[in-house]
Amino acid sequence: MKDYISIISAIVAGLFALISAIVAWRLKKATDMAGQRFSIDKERRDEKKVLYTTIYELLELAVRETTKIDGANLGNEFSKMNAQVHILASQNISEWYGETCIALDEWASLHHKASPKREKIRDQVFTTVQSPDPTAKYKEPSEKAYESFRTLFLQITKEMRLDLNSDT
After folding, report:
1. pTM of this prediction?
2. Per-residue DSSP letters for 84-97?
3. pLDDT in tens, the chain (168 residues)
Protein backbone atom coordinates (compact mmCIF):
# COMPACT_ATOMS: atom_id res chain seq x y z
CA MET A 1 0.00 0.00 0.00
CA LYS A 2 2.85 2.36 0.83
CA ASP A 3 4.22 1.79 -2.66
CA TYR A 4 0.94 2.95 -4.20
CA ILE A 5 0.89 6.12 -2.16
CA SER A 6 4.37 7.12 -3.29
CA ILE A 7 3.47 6.34 -6.93
CA ILE A 8 0.18 8.26 -6.71
CA SER A 9 2.00 11.12 -4.99
CA ALA A 10 4.60 11.22 -7.79
CA ILE A 11 1.86 11.14 -10.47
CA VAL A 12 -0.09 13.96 -8.77
CA ALA A 13 3.09 16.04 -8.43
CA GLY A 14 3.94 15.40 -12.10
CA LEU A 15 0.42 16.37 -13.23
CA PHE A 16 0.55 19.50 -11.07
CA ALA A 17 3.91 20.46 -12.59
CA LEU A 18 2.57 19.82 -16.10
CA ILE A 19 -0.62 21.82 -15.49
CA SER A 20 1.40 24.66 -13.91
CA ALA A 21 3.66 24.78 -16.97
CA ILE A 22 0.66 24.87 -19.34
CA VAL A 23 -1.07 27.61 -17.34
CA ALA A 24 2.13 29.67 -17.18
CA TRP A 25 2.65 29.24 -20.94
CA ARG A 26 -0.94 30.36 -21.70
CA LEU A 27 -0.66 33.37 -19.38
CA LYS A 28 2.63 34.38 -21.00
CA LYS A 29 1.11 34.01 -24.45
CA ALA A 30 -1.92 36.13 -23.46
CA THR A 31 0.34 38.79 -21.94
CA ASP A 32 2.50 38.89 -25.07
CA MET A 33 -0.55 39.21 -27.32
CA ALA A 34 -1.99 42.01 -25.15
CA GLY A 35 1.35 43.83 -25.28
CA GLN A 36 1.49 43.40 -29.03
CA ARG A 37 -2.08 44.72 -29.43
CA PHE A 38 -1.23 47.68 -27.19
CA SER A 39 1.88 48.40 -29.27
CA ILE A 40 -0.07 48.23 -32.54
CA ASP A 41 -2.83 50.47 -31.13
CA LYS A 42 -0.26 52.99 -29.90
CA GLU A 43 1.47 53.01 -33.29
CA ARG A 44 -1.87 53.55 -35.05
CA ARG A 45 -2.76 56.37 -32.65
CA ASP A 46 0.62 58.02 -33.22
CA GLU A 47 0.10 57.79 -37.00
CA LYS A 48 -3.29 59.47 -36.63
CA LYS A 49 -1.84 62.17 -34.39
CA VAL A 50 0.84 62.99 -36.97
CA LEU A 51 -1.74 62.90 -39.78
CA TYR A 52 -4.20 65.18 -37.98
CA THR A 53 -1.46 67.63 -37.02
CA THR A 54 -0.29 67.73 -40.63
CA ILE A 55 -3.87 68.32 -41.86
CA TYR A 56 -4.18 71.27 -39.48
CA GLU A 57 -0.81 72.69 -40.55
CA LEU A 58 -1.61 72.31 -44.24
CA LEU A 59 -4.99 74.04 -43.95
CA GLU A 60 -3.42 76.91 -41.98
CA LEU A 61 -0.64 77.17 -44.57
CA ALA A 62 -3.21 77.23 -47.37
CA VAL A 63 -4.99 80.19 -45.73
CA ARG A 64 -1.70 82.09 -45.37
CA GLU A 65 -0.62 81.34 -48.93
CA THR A 66 -4.02 82.36 -50.30
CA THR A 67 -3.71 85.80 -48.75
CA LYS A 68 -0.13 86.36 -49.99
CA ILE A 69 0.71 88.16 -53.20
CA ASP A 70 2.74 85.33 -54.66
CA GLY A 71 1.36 82.45 -52.64
CA ALA A 72 2.87 79.03 -53.16
CA ASN A 73 1.06 76.32 -55.05
CA LEU A 74 0.18 73.63 -52.52
CA GLY A 75 -1.26 71.17 -55.03
CA ASN A 76 1.39 68.49 -54.42
CA GLU A 77 1.04 68.75 -50.65
CA PHE A 78 -2.75 68.41 -50.88
CA SER A 79 -2.42 65.43 -53.24
CA LYS A 80 -0.18 63.62 -50.75
CA MET A 81 -2.46 64.58 -47.87
CA ASN A 82 -5.56 63.34 -49.73
CA ALA A 83 -3.97 59.93 -50.12
CA GLN A 84 -2.94 59.77 -46.46
CA VAL A 85 -6.37 60.88 -45.25
CA HIS A 86 -8.20 58.30 -47.33
CA ILE A 87 -5.89 55.52 -46.16
CA LEU A 88 -5.26 56.36 -42.48
CA ALA A 89 -8.13 58.51 -41.22
CA SER A 90 -11.56 57.34 -40.18
CA GLN A 91 -14.45 57.67 -42.64
CA ASN A 92 -15.89 60.57 -40.63
CA ILE A 93 -12.61 62.56 -40.73
CA SER A 94 -12.16 61.76 -44.41
CA GLU A 95 -15.58 63.23 -45.20
CA TRP A 96 -14.97 66.36 -43.06
CA TYR A 97 -11.60 66.79 -44.74
CA GLY A 98 -13.16 66.63 -48.21
CA GLU A 99 -15.82 69.20 -47.32
CA THR A 100 -13.24 71.50 -45.74
CA CYS A 101 -10.98 71.33 -48.80
CA ILE A 102 -13.89 72.13 -51.11
CA ALA A 103 -14.79 75.15 -48.95
CA LEU A 104 -11.14 76.24 -48.93
CA ASP A 105 -10.95 76.01 -52.71
CA GLU A 106 -14.17 78.02 -53.13
CA TRP A 107 -12.93 80.71 -50.74
CA ALA A 108 -9.48 80.89 -52.37
CA SER A 109 -11.04 81.37 -55.79
CA LEU A 110 -13.36 84.13 -54.56
CA HIS A 111 -10.61 85.75 -52.48
CA HIS A 112 -8.38 86.15 -55.55
CA LYS A 113 -11.27 87.69 -57.48
CA ALA A 114 -12.12 90.01 -54.55
CA SER A 115 -8.56 91.24 -54.09
CA PRO A 116 -7.24 94.19 -56.06
CA LYS A 117 -4.58 93.37 -58.60
CA ARG A 118 -1.15 93.39 -56.98
CA GLU A 119 2.20 93.16 -58.65
CA LYS A 120 5.61 92.65 -57.17
CA ILE A 121 8.38 94.49 -58.93
CA ARG A 122 11.76 93.80 -57.37
CA ASP A 123 11.19 94.38 -53.65
CA GLN A 124 8.17 96.64 -54.04
CA VAL A 125 4.52 95.61 -54.15
CA PHE A 126 2.13 97.72 -56.19
CA THR A 127 -1.64 97.54 -55.90
CA THR A 128 -3.76 98.61 -58.82
CA VAL A 129 -6.87 100.50 -57.71
CA GLN A 130 -9.67 101.15 -60.17
CA SER A 131 -12.91 103.04 -60.01
CA PRO A 132 -15.47 101.56 -60.13
CA ASP A 133 -13.97 98.67 -58.22
CA PRO A 134 -14.23 95.52 -60.38
CA THR A 135 -13.63 93.35 -57.30
CA ALA A 136 -16.55 94.75 -55.27
CA LYS A 137 -19.03 92.09 -56.42
CA TYR A 138 -16.75 89.33 -55.07
CA LYS A 139 -16.04 90.79 -51.63
CA GLU A 140 -19.23 89.69 -49.86
CA PRO A 141 -19.28 86.18 -51.41
CA SER A 142 -15.60 85.87 -50.47
CA GLU A 143 -16.34 86.77 -46.84
CA LYS A 144 -19.22 84.28 -46.70
CA ALA A 145 -17.07 81.58 -48.27
CA TYR A 146 -14.33 82.26 -45.70
CA GLU A 147 -16.83 81.98 -42.84
CA SER A 148 -18.09 78.70 -44.30
CA PHE A 149 -14.52 77.41 -44.59
CA ARG A 150 -13.65 78.58 -41.07
CA THR A 151 -16.71 76.81 -39.63
CA LEU A 152 -15.74 73.56 -41.36
CA PHE A 153 -12.12 74.01 -40.31
CA LEU A 154 -13.13 74.35 -36.66
CA GLN A 155 -15.46 71.36 -37.00
CA ILE A 156 -12.82 69.07 -38.52
CA THR A 157 -10.44 70.14 -35.74
CA LYS A 158 -13.07 69.16 -33.17
CA GLU A 159 -13.72 65.84 -34.94
CA MET A 160 -9.99 65.03 -35.08
CA ARG A 161 -9.69 65.66 -31.33
CA LEU A 162 -12.70 63.43 -30.67
CA ASP A 163 -11.26 60.70 -32.87
CA LEU A 164 -7.91 60.82 -31.05
CA ASN A 165 -9.62 60.81 -27.64
CA SER A 166 -11.80 57.84 -28.60
CA ASP A 167 -8.67 55.77 -29.30
CA THR A 168 -7.42 56.03 -25.72
Report:
1. 0.73
2. HHHHHS-HHHHHHH
3. 667 888 888 888 899 999 999 999 999 999 999 999 999 889 999 999 999 999 999 999 999 988 886 667 888 999 999 999 999 999 999 999 999 999 999 999 998 888 777 777 777 766 666 667 777 788 888 899 999 999 999 999 999 999 998 876
Q: Please give the angle made by the CA atoms of 151, 154 and 157, to the nearest 5 degrees.
A: 150
- C-alpha 90, offset from chain centre: 9
Question: Are 63 and 142 within 8 A, CB to CB?
Answer: no
**DSSP at 69:** T
Instruction: List alpha helices for 68-135, DSSP H.
Output: 75-88, 91-114
Buried b (16+ CB within 10 A) or exposed e, 51-72: bbeebeebbeebbeebeeeeee
Q: How many residues does the chain have?
A: 168
- Is the distance from CB of 97 to CB of 85 less than 8 angstroms? yes
